[in-house]
Amino acid sequence: MTTVTPPHAPPTARRSSRVPVVIVVGVVVVLALGGALLLRARSKVNDVALASTPKPVTAVEAQASTYRASRTFVGRLDPWVAASIGPQFVSAYVDTVLVRPGTVVKKGQVLATLDCRNANAAARAIEMQARALDAQQKALSDESTRVSSMLDGGFVSPNEAEQKSAMSASKEAELLAENAKLVGTSLEVGDCILRAPFDGDIATRTVDPGAFVRPGTALVSIVDRTTIRMTADVPETDFDHVAPGTKVTIHVYATGRDFSGVIARRAPAADPGTRTVHMEVDIPDPKKEIPVGTTGEVHVDVGDAEAATAIPLLAATVRGPKATFYALDGDIAHARTLVLLGETAGALYVKPTELAAGTRVVTEGRALLKDGDRVAAKLDDSPAPGASNGATP
Question: Which domain holds residue 254?
């Protein structure tokens, strides 16, 4: 018996049988990947409300201190005396300038000279004319005396004697007029040599030799710094606080040094335009260490020192006389608004009955807080402003 072998299946039929398998495997892989991505996404979701988590902040402890009210006024450091040196009567070219800024000069020392040949020539001419008039007046006076002595003998008439006397008086008047002109010309000649009016230091030099100057033009300026005048204009409401004899502390910006002094004088009236009162403090400076024309501060203590609690300025928002800040009660932040005693050197001062020393106040992170929020506070151990007892602003 003969066995018949069936022919092999065609390639197309074999490929068709694999397609469903590939599709099923692909769907399974996609579903597995989708499930994995879903699980990963859900694992990143925070199911805890943000409002219930403590907010990280930095806090410091309020410090026991003392506070004394004060006033601070910005003023200017002026020399005891100052002068601008220049011609007052003549216009001329500058011949020499013998000093420069920083030169120490003595009273009467020559500072500069002007080319005053015209003034010298005019003074010389007037002097010669005055001498001629003086000689003529003497001759006429002697002649008048002789003529008057002849009246008793009848040798001359009274009219002739009176004329001689009148001529003598006229020449004397002309002589006095020339002498007056000579004095004025001598002032012009003296104006050509500029001298120091007092002992001091040269502050500025504004003109060099060869320049043409007129009356009122300053060539150099001189200041006396042996005593400095600290001048300031204070509001009229502080009139009683700047009475003469009041002790003050002066801070000089230029050198960074502090000086103690007393108010030497105070104006009796306020400026009608600015409603301020002028006051001055004298600072002896024999070594001439303070530059004049610079700026400084005058600190005046007002009233008596009182107990206070100090907090950093950065811990509060200040509006007018009140400050708003966050105080911690455990891990809860409470917003508080208190009336200030004052502010100085980066610290705010409140009454100890309203804020006890040791209370923690928020310094950093308070912008994100609301009253009653939970916080995770980090205590800042660095010294807070106003921490030392007895600190007086």
Answer: 224-301
